[in-house]
Predict the 3D structure of the following.
Amino acid sequence: MKRGRQEQVSTTNLKKRFFLWSALILIGGGLLLSALSFWNTRRLLMAEAMAKSEVILNSVEAIRSYVKDELRPKMYELHGNDAFIIEAMSTTYVSTTIMEEFGQSMPNYIYRRASVNPHNPRNLADPFEEEMLDWFEEDSGRSFWQGVVKKNGASFFISMVPDYFTPPCIRCHGKAEDAPQSLLERYGTEGGFRFRAGDLAGINSVAIPVSASLRQAWQGSLVIFAITLGASICLLWLLNLLFQRLVIERLGVMLSLITEKKKTSSAPCPGDELDALHASLGSLRSYVRSARKGAGLEPNFISGYVVTRPIAAGAMSWLYGAYEAESGDKVALKIGFEETLQNPLYRACFEAELYLFETMSHHCLPGVRERIGDTLVLNEIKGESLISILDGKRLDDRLLPPLFSQLCDLTASLHATGIVHHDLRPHILMLDDRDRVHLFDMGLASSDQQPDPIAAAGLGPQGDMLYMAPELIQGKRGDPRSDIYALGVLLYLAVTGRLPFDEKRKTIQKWLQHKKKITPPGNYRAGLPPALEQVIIKAVAHDIKSRYQWVEDLWEDLEKALRGYKAK
Amino acid sequence: MRLMIFADIHANLEALQSTLSHAADRGVHRTVCMGDLVGYGPHPNECIELVRDLKNCRCLAGNHDVAALWETSPYGMSSAAKEAILWTMDKLTADSREFLGALPDRLDIADMTFAHANPYNPRGWRYVLNRKYALRSFAATGSRHILIGHSHRPLVITRKHLLGLDLQTVSGSIRFKVDDGRRRIINCGSVGQSRDRDPRSCYLIFDTRRQRLEFYRVAYNVEKAAEAIRDAGLPPELGTRLFKGI
């Protein structure tokens, strides 16, 4: 029950995010689909209406041409030039009358002949038509207009063409006194006169009602949206079921395993469950890598030595425990990482490291027995890693003088022979039962008597940023004062049990800024003697000139401070 | 830290042994030999061996060391010096040659720069005894202290301001405070062939923590040294000048 609740809590985040995004995508997709459907239906509707209205307008134009070119001349021929029989000779009368007849059988097609000054008042333009007459008058090149117009609450697709007076038309539309008697008798003298040839006579328009069709298209879109929404809900439910079974439950089991392993870490991992899993896999990868190294060698033989277990990793190499097969003497083997041996630059660093071990002599450095190919056989290194001793706690005060006297002496010896270590950190230091310090790695060291591969290759800062002096972060190498800085950080760690900086990954610029401000060690340890605090602060000074210039000076001040502290 | 600095031994084993013996009682942490281990004197290999075996010691190349390896021609030197170099060339062992061949011209450690003659052109062997070359030396490094030898005369040049210098000759065993933050060129004198009219060996201990220079003059058996020069078949004036310190 407890486990089930734990899983539920731990898996909500990923599940919620998955379903929120899925729902958003599905609803958005449904909206898009229905909008597309509506747009397409409307487009087809308009195309059809356009084609139909074109047919009607062409028919009207054919009727008007027939009246003008065939009927009217014939009537003049039969009845004389003074005769004007409206029912057979007026293009407008004939065309409108025929279209009215057509409209009775086809009510969805409304034909209009509109003018601002017609003979027949029925043909007087409404406000919209007046507007369109103005539009055509503005530019005589305009010969067609189409569009959807709302009239009396209904939508119509309207097609319009302009009609211009020709000279024969002026007889009936010029001066009233020249107009045929029959025309005056029927329409009077009020409208339809005072025009000239070329004037805009009116517009012929065909209106097709589309309200019902558009409504149907809109309803169709709504139906599509509703169907999509329903299908989305079903799909979400199905996905929920599958995601829960296939991912969430199994992920929950994995996460519960991780939580069990990391009992000590109570802080929740930032991000969702996959982020937590990713972080855990990262550490697992490191572990597997080191385990494979160990498994790869154990229980292999290197010459006459039996390899037992990996002790620690340095900058360029592993340190393995081993024993001589014949005598049973315990030794340590320094073996380069695979990537170190394959990369010419790192291999040069590794060779330089082996050379330093072979040529340097100090009681804190393991003695070299022999070199077998890429493996250096060292005397047995006893003790516990300093990083394990300092794991979250400060060093026993009793150990401070022996540890730092040896470290300072070792560093001074290195500096005196022109060697700068560049990578002093607790991971590569061991402390044995007799409080003796052992340094087993010099992978990033440089000597002023040999070319420095890292500087020559122009590589950026190498090593652990936490212990690295600002000038090292800037890529400068070969200054012994950088090691003094690292000793200062080690001292800070030993005295307070914590580092002066947190371990979050930062850019180089942020590290440089970060290193400018150091919390005084006294803030983390009550009762720390001011003299000891001053030594630490001077050793980790950001400005290289403000730092201790020589390790011996650091030790002299430190020894005095520790002696005073002990006496107190 | 107490840093012992000495230079210009010139194969004078008597002087070197006395100097090292004198310094052994003065709590020295590190040693820098500023070059010219050989030349003039009759014990080049012995002196090299002695310096090589010193703990925490760095050594620089001097003009006589380089000439003894034929890296520069000895024919530009004075007649006696040239004779001595040609003699030394015959006497040097392979180990000694290897040691001399590996010596650097200049060292920069912490806030100090070490060079046998000068830091701006170490193989030019120009003496830094006046304002012109002192200013060039200051410009050649950002270090606060520049340690040199070569002239066989102990000297302290203090930079008072951008162009102002104070040249101070050093007589006898004397202590200087250098805690005023000023930049200095310090010549540590000569162990094996003083030229400031004081026949005693001269060397320096720099106490970095107290910011103090300690110049020491050490008497040694000059007669024995001069006799060895004569016995070796070197020009006899090289022995006689040791008595006068010139």
